[in-house]
Design brief:
6-stranded mixed beta sheet; about 475 residues
Length: about 475
């Protein structure tokens, strides 16, 4: 019996691993001396024609950093309409008390003064060492230097992506393109149905970009946002629609990402829509909304895979695909449990097809927290009832494949004879795929991680030095 590929519903558009800046944005990145290494550490993304609609997901960590708390305030005060995103790398500005909050607010004021906008229209990223203060003099000088450099160019967005990095070894970018209905002339018949492609099949369309940049290769574990990422689109949408797209996409992608089992104090994902492509307003529940959501999820998924592959010390991407679960929540729980297991990760590093570790991890799987379940579509009551419960699994129905080798088949007795040396050879690859068929229903899910290596321990034992 061959393994079953996890179906993706709805089908996701192709993704190009490049920075293709959507219209309506300027971007740039440079070194401001925040990192001792001298590498780029300040990024700025700005809208070109008024505020952009915005939505976000944030870390649930009770030690949430100053930029997280301030960005929440900005979105609440502005109603989800912003002009800029600023990122400082090298200092997390977490666990810095009232002084850290004042520092972060001052960063917003500096950005506002530089750009001639309101500080209540600036969103914030910070990443780096916890417990250190932002060097505001360097931030101020860096903003003064970067302001004339930001550009509506792919190179500008690539520079911003590079400036997000800390221990990342690669710059993480992804772009998808989707056709959406064009803006109809003012007062045109059917204007109330803007965004409904079913009512305008014969009408004009516009190409809309969704582009993402991200950082994060350590201190990553599933729990809403699990690193820093900025998604930009030139689609026309309001903040409520963006939130309805971003939250479930994050639940199925970034919430399915784990490098080391630690959730950061600074995790944040922003989604901004400029409306500059000239498309019609995308309305919830329409085919246009589904198409935009698919593009956002495609970019999020690809960025999550890039982050897992670049996990600190990693030598391979570890992917777990689960089919046949009682429901999708259970499938995602099992996939998360497998890629989060230190024993599975160590076996992947040693190229050891040890299916017992996979089975043990799957049997311990627990459903996500309530906020994640709500983001994935559960009602608040159902999410509260399911949160943290053990995922359904029957060993007599379970099948496990490692790198295409069937190693456990519950319906025919369990452990299978297989060519161990061939399996070990198959594990010596850039990506190791583990597949589980639970035999309990139609639920599907996937998760992404990496192997656990000596280099990870060495990097993190020396991180602050």
């Amino acid at each position: 019996m061959t393994a079953t590929r996890v179906p993706v519903s709805p089908p996701l558009p192709d993704v190009e691993r490049s920075a293709r800046i959507p219209s309506g944005f300027l971007a740039g990145g440079r070194s401001a001396g925040l990192k001792r290494s001298g590498r780029p550490d300040l990024a700025l993304v700005v809208t070109t024609d008024g505020p952009a609609a915005a939505a976000a997901v944030f870390t649930p960590n009770r030690f949430a950093a100053a930029p997280v708390r301030l960005s929440r305030e900005v979105l609440a005060a502005s109603g989800g309409w912003v002009r800029a995103v600023v990122s400082t790398s090298g200092c997390a500005n977490a666990a810095t008390g009232p002084d850290g909050d004042a520092d972060q607010r001052r960063v917003g004021e500096l950005v506002a003064a530089t750009l001639g906008i309101s500080g209540e229209q600036v969103l914030h990223f910070s990443t780096g060492i916890i417990g250190t203060r932002l060097p505001l003099d360097r931030v101020a000088a860096g903003l003064e230097a970067i302001a004339p450099e930001i550009a509506a160019s792919d190179a500008g967005l690539e520079a911003a992506a590079s400036a997000l990095r800390t221990t990342d070894t690669t710059t993480k970018v992804a772009t998808a393109t989707v056709e959406l209905p064009a803006q109809k002339p003012s007062g045109a018949p059917g204007e109330a149905a803007l965004g409904d492609t079913a009512s305008s099949d014969a009408g004009a369309t516009v190409s809309v970009r969704v582009t993402g940049i991200a950082k994060g290769v350590g201190m990553i574990h599933p729990n809403m946002a699990t690193m820093l990422s900025l998604l930009l689109t030139d689609a026309t949408a309001d903040p409520a629609l963006l939130a309805s797209i971003l939250r479930p996409a994050a639940a199925r992608t970034w919430n399915q990402l784990s490098v080391d089992g630690d959730t950061s104090t600074n995790d944040t994902v922003f989604l901004l829509a400029s409306g500059a492509a000239g498309g019609a307003l995308v309305i919830a529940g329409t085919p246009a909304a589904s198409a935009l959501a698919a593009a956002v999820e495609a970019v999020a998924r690809d960025l999550a895979r890039q982050q897992a592959a670049d996990g600190e010390g990693a030598t391979c991407l570890l992917t777990c695909q689960v089919t046949g679960a009682a429901d999708d929540a259970d499938a995602r729980a099992v996939a998360r449990a497998v890629i989060s297991s230190s024993l599975v990760k160590a076996a992947a590093h040693g190229k050891d097809p040890n299916w017992g570790r996979i089975a043990g991890a799957a049997g311990n799987a627990r459903v996500a927290i309530a906020t994640v379940l709500e983001a994935a579509g559960f009602s608040p009551d159902d999410a509260a009832a399911r949160a943290g419960t053990q995922a359904a699994l029957d060993p007599d129905r379970l099948r496990i494949w490692i790198a295409g080798h069937l190693v456990f088949d519950g319906p025919v007795g369990g452990p299978q004879s297989f060519d161990r040396e061939a399996a070990r050879a198959a594990l010596d690859a850039p990506e190791i795929v583990i597949e589980l068929e639970l035999g309990l229903g139609n639920g599907v899910g996937e998760a992404f991680g990496c192997d656990l290596t000596e280099t990870y321990v060495r990097e993190n034992s020396e991180y602050t030095t």
